[in-house]
Amino acid sequence: MGLTIPVILNSVNNLSDARYAAGMGVDLMGFEVEEGAERYVTPDLFKAITAWLSGVQTVASTSVLNPERISFINEHYQPDFIQFESVEGISQSDLSEITCIQKIAISSGNELAVLKDIKQQMYDEANFVLLELSEWADWKNHKEIISEVNTHHTILWALPIEKEDVALIQSLELKGIALKGGDEQRPGWKDLDELIDILEALEEN
Question: Is residue 38 part of a domain?
Fold first, then answer.
């Protein structure tokens, strides 16, 4: 048993999402560690959640990566990966020493233009590139360019997928997909239906 495609579950802020996803075999689990983020996770909450997990690599997500943020994240979170959108005051050689994921958020209407020129957007030093395409409603009509980019780069695809899209995702042989956690409605009570549907559809028989 396991998932047929590597999965990162981002924006985790509660134990319900974390324990279920870990049990299903999610490879990476991302936590927003920048104060002011929509689903900000304090160091104490991060430790409380990850103490229950095994076999999952953790990701600390921040918008701008600079030497101060690296030091803070490593001291207070100690994740397996750091996810960032841009860097400040960090050389390419410095970045190559960090186990990291570069997130590229692509605005609606610019998807094809960015994908055609994706190499210009990427840091070669990143271990993975996460393409944030969750608003790209038309993605299923552009399978050819998705397949081409997927072939040449190590991409985690954040696409607006539902369980009915899993067969198509598998046929494209994507190297990884990115899903997003949600908020608990009250402590210990969480509607996991959408996440369950997708992960169960991705599960090996």
Answer: yes
C-alpha to C-alpha distances, 156 to 5, 10, 52, 136, nearest whole angstrom: 10, 11, 25, 15
Q: What is the CATH number of the domain that holds 92?
A: 3.20.20.70
Q: Which domain does 65 fall in, by range?
A: 7-202
Q: How far apart are CA 183 and CA 164, in angstroms?
A: 24
Q: Which residues of 135-167 are buried (b: 16+ CB within 10 A; e: fewer)?
A: ebeebeeeeeebeebbeeeebbbbbebeeeebe
Number of structural domains in the chain: 1
* 174, 5 contact by CB (below 8 A): yes
pLDDT at 188: 45
Closest CA to 178 of 159, 195, 202, 163: 159
At 14 the three-state DSSP class reads coil
pLDDT at 29 over 80: yes
Structure confidence at residue 143 (pLDDT): 96
- What is the tens place of the pLDDT at every residue in 33-42? 999 999 999 9
pLDDT in tens, 61-101: 999 999 999 999 999 999 999 999 999 999 888 899 999 99
